[in-house]
Amino acid sequence: MGKKRAVTAQIKVQVTGGQATPAPPVGTALGPHGVNIGQFV
Q1: Cα distance between the two ends of the chain
Q2: Residue 1 pLDDT greater than 70, yes or no
Q3: pLDDT band at 13, cuts 50/70/90?
Q4: Would you say residue 10 has pLDDT above 80?
Q5: In the Cβ-directed half-sphere of 30, how many Cα atoms lie within 13 Å?
Q6: By C-alpha distance, which of 25, 40, 39, 33 is closest to 9?
Q7: Contacts of 26 by beta carbon, 8 Å cutoff, 6+ apart
Q8: What's the chain's Rg over C-alpha atoms?
Q9: What secondary structure does DSSP assign to the chain, as a single string?
Q10: pLDDT over threshold 70, residue 18
Q11: In Å, how far are 7, 11, 12, 14 from 20, measured between CA atoms?
Q12: For residue 34, is it left (φ>0), alpha (ψ between -120 and 50) or beta?
């Protein structure tokens, strides 16, 4: 496990299981907040 971090933002996304990709809209929603999209997907 990585280091604990403080919550800086809450982002709600609704994605069908197995279909999350770094492409919009998921990537554009998470990228500005510093989320590693590769680890998210």
Answers
A1: 17
A2: no
A3: confident
A4: yes
A5: 19
A6: 33
A7: 13, 15, 20, 37, 40, 41
A8: 11
A9: ----------------TT---SSTTHHHHHGGGT--HHHH-
A10: yes
A11: 22, 15, 13, 9
A12: left
Chain centroid to Cα 11, Å, comes to: 8
Q: Mark 17-40 as b/e (b = at least 16 C-beta within 10 Å).
A: eeeeeeeeebbeebeeeeeebeee
Query: Of 38, 33, 28, 32, whose CA–CA distance to 5 is shortest?
Result: 33
Token digits for 31?
A: 């990228």
Stretch 4-27: mean pLDDT, rounded? 80
